[in-house]
Amino acid sequence: MPFELPSLSQLNLGVSIPAMSVAVWACILLLIDLWIPKDRKERTAWLAAGGLVFAFVVNLFTFNSGETAFLGMFVADGFTGVLNIVILITAFIAILMSIDYLRRTGTERGEYYVLMLLSISGAMFMAAANDLITVFVALELLSIPLYILAAFRTPDLKSEESGMKYFILGAFASAFLVYGSALIYGATGTTNLNEIFQSVDRVVTQGSTSVFLLLLGAGLVLVGLGFKVAVVPFHMWTPDVYEGAPTPVTAFMSVAAKVGGFGALLRVMMVGLPAFMLQDGATHTAWQQTVWLIAAATLILGNLIAISQTNIKRLLAYSSIAHAGYIMMAVAAAGTQGVGTSAAQAAAVYLLAYMFTNIGAFAVAQALERDDGTGTKLDDFVGLARSQPLLAFMMAVFMLSLTGIPLTAGFIGKWLVFQATLQAELVPLAVIGVLTSVVSAFYYIRVVVNMYLRDTAKEIVLPGESPRLNWAIYLSFAGTLVVGILPALVTGLSSSVNFTALMMP
Amino acid sequence: MENTGLGLITVVLFLPMVGLTILLFLDGRTQVENIKWTAFGTSIVTFLASLLLWAGYDAGNPALQFVERMAWIPQYGISYYVGLDGLSLLLVILTTFIMPLAILSSFRSHIFEERGREKLYYIFMLLLEWAMIGVFVAQDLVVFYIFWEVTLVPMYFLIGIWGAERRIYAAIKFFLYTRAGSILMLLAVLFVGGAAGTFALPEIIAGVQSGALSFPMDGLFSTQSFLFLGFFIAFAIKVPVFPLHSWLPDAHVQAPTAGSVILAGVLLKMGTYGLVRFCLPLFPQASIEWAPIIGVLAVIGIIYGAWVSYAQTDVKKLVAYSSVSHLGFVVLGIFALNAAGISGGILQMVNHGISTGGLFLLVGMLYERRHTKAIDAYGGIWKVLPVFGGISLLITLSSMGLPGLNGFIGEFTILLGTFGSQYLGFFFALFATLGVILAAVYMLYMFQKVYMGNVTKPENENLEPLHWQEYAVLIPIVVAIIAIGLQPAPFFRTMDASVGELASQFEQPEREVVEPVIVRNAP
């Protein structure tokens, strides 16, 4: 077949505008930033945020078009649309958090916002990737700016360590992903997810060698993406990176990297390999058991280790591992025939709920954080309820939401995930999920204990408080409560979650 | 499903929220008096509104009444669905009756001198009332679950902020225990809802009764059993059923007085209510299979609770363990699975709420005066505070089940039900009766040590007489104790139809079942 350059109309760029516009805007902003004076970098932030708003609005229009772009490598279906919403809100709140933080820590530079935009576009491309090549490129676009952002507080040693660690382990993860993709290509002869789906049956009938290749390839892709979303046993980098990175970056990457990673993971598994059964007539896919084990290990380890943490950023790091475990439950559930769509909806809602709550919690931690990065110990929360009643109340709601108490977003996410897991007949996994969530209640409640039940006469000042940070907290708080009290809004949104060309028998 | 409008239940349910909203706008430092009286006023209005429910309730009709239903999360078949039957109604009234007393009893408490934060306290009180009423009126499994979990949060703070020395430990223990139970229930709820295709309880129960929906039941370990246990464990922790009771003494002893009153008066009833409302009708076969085992646990709880009560040196702990014993009776009555047992159990829920709530109030008043809960620190209180002593005697007697007072009616009916039960029978009744005797032992022991004899400690000689607010708290309790003791009929009549329908599922025609009609004329 002679290679022909596709025409622009064949590329169908229109549906990719949300993700494309962010990337293009990042490049333009890099130039504009040159003319913005050093002490006015706030303007760069607002310009970046403006780009996000534009992408958000366009996303609402192209939402669920179901069309593909770049000759089938990029797809804009309901799943992409919902995840884009999550990513863009994350980024918007993260930018609100960043402006004053960068100023007071003396790291205010225009590149910060450009890098963040690039990372965002990477996450959005990942959510839309319909080809293993796109997954890889998008993953790099998501990750490389994050490595730099994690080390942005240089010469702060912890921040540098954070960036370095993230970079090395991230590079390993990418290598796994590429190798896995290559093996899948070897088995199926294609990297396009829809074509992989069509050739799975042929591979299975061909015999054991190609099945082994496909199995190994899928496993390595799982490893690569598992690193990104920080599931056990690929989670080791998380606490150090989260602790060392600048707090707004941590807040951002704890959500955006997970959204991108889970977006790609769900799509690869559910569009590419939903019919990968080792036996005829089976109802559970070949990869379900592995994902099951990873989910269970993540839930148990993440929650247990979180108990012993004394720093809120490390605690939230382990808690984010645990939450990855809950979303992994949904991925495992997607491996049962017929449960795929509701599992993907559950994962999307969980990500949305987790996004508001987790960013809010990090934002509160940032309000307490001193300029030198200290002040985020759990003991620093003692007496917060008396000195800062509103902030303490919002933090308490975030903690309850992470625990999964009703009337908060976290409950809605957990509920849907458990429901999907039960539908998929994975009862033991569901039981592990609920039991570990009791464990999680212990360490989240400890934060509340420190804020409300332990009292101190000392007045707590908030070094990081600023109107913009407050807005970030209010936004997250409002999101947490609205999703919790009016879940119909998000379940309505999530019911548009579907995969174009999802061909589950 | 069609949307009905909103009605009286919603008014009762959301009145506390209205009060709470007003509280949010009052200043916590300068308007303490306004805050107190707003909270109290709200709870009184809620009580009066709930009496309207009772007045408008048609006792002859076993169906749900005052039903309101509105779509909430239509994609998953979840609706804001509330309604009342006899059982729910009595417990709603109990809640709205106890709350004003608990709030009024807090007005003069010393805890605010140390800890302050009155505004937050009353906000949590009203939030708790809202959630508790919600638990009793919800007819949708998910909505019920949400209210159930929400009660946890204000109670946790009430214990944790305004409790005694070891309050943090007790609060965390309370939270984790209850959460562990309820999250398992969530799984069972999701499973049942998934199997039935709806979360609306009446529809699911209708499905179970008609046989359209059935959960496989063969032997003690089968799907239905696990679902039953999912619900049962959540409720058993709340009740608490032996051996899941260990959070209760800590929570009770550490909680502030009003917290203990609400805990004993209403929160524990959520557990027994759940048993009747969910476990029995949803899983009839599993209930039958498990009835003897649960009966044994209940009897152990009755005797163990009584035994441990006797050994206490702390008045509050004594009352706390007596709750374990009394609620053992309620669980025993419920799992007698006949009309007498269940209606006795329900009445005993109300009785225990009033009597034990009253005991905690008494302990609280003593504590306000002497700042100790040790039994040894008292003696001869009757001589110093004669009226208070008299009221205490009445409440103590009611708690140990003296004929003519409320406790007797409930216990007697339960024993009758247990005796006539196809599933429990004579030996259960026999051992439970032992519990009645033990109750007399520890209650009278406590009363004797605290109230009778001469004043041995000089500190007790000049105790401050009761404030009118304290009388206002105790008198409604005394009235309720005597009223139920002499005239239980209206209470039985309210629940007869609902209980009869529930119990008919478990009746097997060959044996005669004791009807509550006999009981009504008994005292």
Could you characterize the architecture of this molecule?
The complex is a heterodimer of chains A (505) and B (523). By secondary structure, chain A is an all-alpha fold. Chain A has one domain (19-275, 287-503). Helix content of chain A is 73%, strand content 1%. In chain A, strands 1-2 form a two-stranded antiparallel sheet. In chain A, helix 10 (237-244) packs antiparallel against helix 11 (247-272) and helix 11 packs antiparallel against helix 14. Chain A is globular. Chain A starts with 7 loop residues before the first helix and ends in an 11-residue tail after the last helix. The mean pLDDT of chain A is 88. Chain B is mainly alpha-helical. Chain B has a domain at 283-504. In chain B, helix 8 runs antiparallel to helix 10 and helix 12 runs antiparallel to helix 15 (339-370). The longest helix of chain B is centred in the C-terminal third of the chain and has 32 residues, at 339-370. Chains A and B meet through helix 17, helix 18 and helix 20 of A and strand 1, helix 6, helix 7 and helix 8 of B.
